[in-house]
Design goal:
Largest sheet: 5 strands, parallel
Radius of gyration: 22 Å
Number of helices: 14
Number of strands: 5
Distance between the termini: 83 Å
Helix content: 40-55%
Order of helices and strands: HHHHHHHHHEHEHEHEEHH
Strand order of the largest sheet: 2-1-3-4-5
Length: 330
């Protein structure tokens, strides 16, 4: 096939939302004509498939599931062969490769070959079975530990360090940071706000959507707004992020669905991964694990950038609480 049907991507692009003064909104990763960063390493391919497959079209899911199930076999196929295997079209195969972060199908084949080599060497983790109602607690512990480890590994493999670095820079120099999250994501928002406060930065976590919006209107250029939403479509989180975006703040989305609506108003997108959801392991559990890893990466990066002021602030906070951790004397 010639040129991987170039016209497929010539019409892709960002959303129509723009900042005041004509500044363009960031492009939606799912529709972008070219990936913004380098193609994922082979180790990140399986994580990308697990993260993005639920938001793909059914035909693209078939392609993604095929490459994840048999990387060695698919690596040996041409784009036409993979299209025939999955009952899709060459255009769908190329779109899937692009959505997974590869410039073209040739790059995806190289990643599949690398992933197959890892699996053959025994380095690739296996997928555990779902937790059953009658599982002994020892099995529950083992399965949860494995899934948590897989979630963290997937998140680390898929985390865009360029986007992370840009978010760290914005946070380190921000006049003020607002963080939006509801439910389990609200707990993660509180965790990030508390961490930033302990190194002397002004940060507020908002789980009430009304307060989030009324605070967002006060933001401006030089401020940062962070939305935490696993689904990427939580309206109570997207609305304040949109308001902050429209008022000129730098916006960040921590999400498991980088192609979701939240990306329309995010200058920087930090993608999280999740373990497989089951009746006894809802998405809120696994998404929180990956979100907390991203929060810790952000906090550590900001602390590095602001070490001269962050270190004394941390010491002061430890000293202020030291007496609460010492045995009381009568």
């Amino acid at each position: 096939m010639t040129n991987d049907v170039k016209e497929i991507f010539s019409t892709g692009g960002g959303n129509s939302t723009g900042r005041p003064g004509g500044e363009a909104a960031p492009a939606n990763p799912a529709n972008s004509p070219a990936p913004a960063t380098a193609a994922p390493a082979p180790a990140a391919l399986a994580a990308k498939v697990r993260t993005l497959a639920p938001s793909m079209t059914r035909s693209m899911q078939r392609v993604a599931e095929a490459v994840a199930a048999d990387p060695a076999g698919c690596a040996a196929l041409t784009v036409t062969g993979l299209a025939e295997l999955t009952g899709t079209s060459e255009a769908t195969v190329v779109r899937t490769a692009r959505l997974l972060g590869y410039p073209g199908y040739r790059d995806l084949r190289l990643a599949l070959a690398g992933l197959a080599a890892q699996q053959q060497s025994g380095r690739a983790p296996s997928v555990t079975a779902d937790i059953a109602v009658d599982d002994p607690l020892a099995d529950v512990v083992a399965k949860l530990a494995h899934d948590e480890q897989q979630t963290l590994a997937d998140t680390a493999a898929g985390l865009d360090t360029v986007q992370l670095g840009a978010a760290v820079t914005a946070l380190a120099t921000a006049r003020r940071t607002d963080i939006y999250g509801v439910g389990a994501s609200g707990l993660v928002a509180q965790d990030l706000a508390q961490k930033l406060l302990r190194i002397g930065l002004i940060a507020h976590a908002h789980s009430d959507p009304h307060l989030a919006v009324t605070n967002a209107v006060q933001l401006r250029s030089g401020d940062v707004a962070i939305a935490i939403t696993h689904s990427g479509s939580t309206g109570d989180v997207i609305e304040p992020l949109r308001v902050a975006f429209d008022h000129g703040a730098t916006t960040v989305a921590i999400t498991g669905r980088p192609d979701g609506p939240v990306s329309q108003y995010a200058d920087h997108i930090l993608t999280t991964s999740t373990a497989r959801e089951s009746d006894l392991r809802p998405a809120a559990m696994s998404s929180r694990t990956s979100q907390l890893l991203v929060v810790d990466c952000l906090f550590t990066g900001v602390t590095q950038r602001t070490y001269e002021t962050a270190a004394p602030a941390l010491s002061a906070s430890y000293e202020a609480l030291a007496h609460r951790h010492s045995p009381r004397t009568r």
